Amino acid sequence: MSQEKQTRQDTLFVNSLAKGLRLLEVFDEENQALGLSELSARSGIDKSATQRLANTLHQTGYLTKDERTRRYRPSHKFLEMAYAYMWSDPIVQLAMPKLIEFSRRIGETVNMAQMSGSDIVYVMRLPCQRTSFAATILGRRLPALVTSSGRTMLAGLPEAEREACIANWPVRRFTPATTLDREEIARSVQEGAARGFVLTNGQMILKEIAVAAPVISSEGRPVAAVQCAVSAYDWTPERVEREIVPILLDTANSITPSAV
Questions:
Q1: Interval 13-71: pLDDT, tens
Q2: CA dist 209 to 115, 145, 232, 239, Å?
Q3: Chain CA centroid to CA 197, Å
Q4: Among 13, 26, 63, 66, which residue's Cβ finds the most Cβ atoms within 10 Å?
Q5: Best CA proximity match to 109, nearest among 124, 139, 131
Q6: What is the pTM of this model?
Q7: Residues 128, 146 contacting (CB under 8 angstroms)
Q8: Domain range holding 42?
Q9: 3 state SS of 195
Q10: Could you tell me whether strands 63-66 and 71-74 are parallel, antiparallel, or unpaired per DSSP bridges?
Q11: What CATH number does residue 37 fall under?
Q12: Residue 178 lies in a domain
């Protein structure tokens, strides 16, 4: 729904606030410091309004400004908002000690993701020694259909809902091995529903095997996924299933939904 339609249909909707938030959302790993023209182009807000919004966000501490280059970047306020989120999410609080123990037992990268629209968002990340910097940062958003975490959460949905998601959600290629075939994705999700976990190979990073299992709420719906990523140079899918999957399933099942 466009902001114009939202404004007409919801008298409580504050369009100027929505524009300011949209300006904050344009920053990512490829757009770390932006000038006014870039902010305007990426947000779709005219340059005059962008200038006023950027100045307001700078004055209120949400953006920092390099006085030499006149470029803006996110401030520590972003971290403060993430801090508030981590305290507000009971699943994160419940899962943290479980994931720390899981990471200690297998010595590999462990993550927890949650669904956000048609994407997953990493809300917990416990790296191992080989983990790249990008794979340590909370808040990374990825298309659910090409990730083990997204597929395992989809596997826990009612069949009709699951099929609609697979048919309509976006897919994007990250490696030459990324699966874009929706029928193949559907088979992976269906297999995940039967087995209780989803394993992928080379979908996000070449030579990386990822395996994930869902955290199920007391209502029987997936609310998160516990995921482990290992190098295909050191592991085979068979070894992952034999040595990691039992611990993965035990960890995901131990994040007791009734306590959330």
A1: 999 999 999 999 999 888 999 999 999 999 999 999 999 999 999 999 999 999 999 99
A2: 21, 16, 6, 11
A3: 18
A4: 63
A5: 131
A6: 0.85
A7: no
A8: 3-75
A9: helix
A10: antiparallel
A11: 1.10.10.10
A12: yes
